[in-house]
Amino acid sequence: MLNNKAVLVTGGTGSFGKNVIRTMLEKYDIRRMVVFSRDELKQFEMSQIFPESKYPQLRYFIGDVRDFERVRQAFRDIDYVIHAAALKQVPAAEYNPVECIKTNIYGAENVIRAAIENGVEKVIALSTDKASNPVNLYGATKLCSDKLFVAGNNIAGGHRTRFAVVRYGNVVGSRGSVVPFFNRLLAEGVKELPITDERMTRFWITLSQGIDFVLQNFQRMHGGEIFVPKIPSMKIVDMAKAMAPDLPHKVIGIRPGEKLHETMCPADDSHLTLEFDDHYVIKPSINFTVETDYRENMLGEKGKPVPEGFSYSSDNNTQWLSAQELMDMIGHLGKDGYV
């Protein structure tokens, strides 16, 4: 699929970016791999992990997705793009809304325009469960981004560029997630763990699972889909019990912009949602110039419509993580594609 292709990853020095790049370099004969990000220190640090002597096809571009001219320049002679650049911290977005809008919405528009102008073949944009029925600014900007990338297939017109979106939940061990937060508190010797609400649930996925899902969807996509993996849920209180069975909990209340449960396929989109063996697809709500039957993807996998009113939420999930499964996931973090 990616052999002899030129691939660019925006936000390429983040946790996902670094590890999807490593996965692609190890699994495929990549012609050229471009890391696009705005942090020169992270690029330098990454170059020590991926030395030019071993990876001569790897290139580093300093740039911001807010800067259209730089994005357009970086996309020259690129076949595939993974758009992972975003401002993701919920509180930071609430306090700096315009900055979040510039990166997550205007940046998405720049990626779409640059991809079409340069004849990029396929673009997959990373979304989040917070984009479904959003209650905070971060989720709202990612919903706008999702809509832009879906509509990008119409904007492309007669050009070959196709766009799709991948939406999934919390990544175990990622920066800002509860697992490293709890681990840090435990290392400091705390006497109790803070719990926002004992009813709270979340979807969980490992980084390597997220990477594999993104790469698979390059093969699956027609263009216009929002791909959602079937992944397990877990109560935050059960996660705390698994990580520290002997410690009591202190309920601190839900933070601003936070939900009790996360949804990845909202009920309002049930008429657009298809169920496949290991994932869901939310079809475009708009009509494209070329009619597409999304019930069968480009790999020949077949899906079926979900019942009216169906929603896929972390509280109504049929898959749940046990304490042992969680600890196994945490125990594999160092071997799970992390650098």
Helix content: 25-40%
Our measurement of the CA-to-CA distance between the termini, rounded to an integer number of angstroms, reads 24 Å
Number of DSSP helices?
A: 10
H-E string: EHEHEHEHHEHEEHEEHEEHEEEEEEH
Q: What top-tier CATH class of the domain at 6-168 and 206-229 and 266-312 fits best?
A: Alpha Beta
Strand composition percent: 15-25%
How is this structure best described in words?
The protein is α/β, with parallel strands linked by helices and 339 residues long. The protein has helices at 15-27, 40-49, 68-74, 90-95, 97-117, 137-155, 178-187, 207-220, 236-243, 323-331, and strands at residues 6-10, 32-37, 58-62, 80-83, 122-126, 162-166, 170-171, 193-195, 201-205, 226-229, 233-235, 249-251, 263-265, 273-275, 279-282, 304-305, 312-313. It has a domain at 6-168 and 206-229 and 266-312: Rossmann fold, CATH 3.40.50. It has a 10-stranded mixed sheet with strand order 3-2-1-4-5-6-10-15-14-16, sandwiched between helices. The longest helix is centred in the N-terminal third of the chain and has 21 residues, at 97-117. The two termini are 24 Å apart. Residues 335-339 have low confidence and may be disordered.
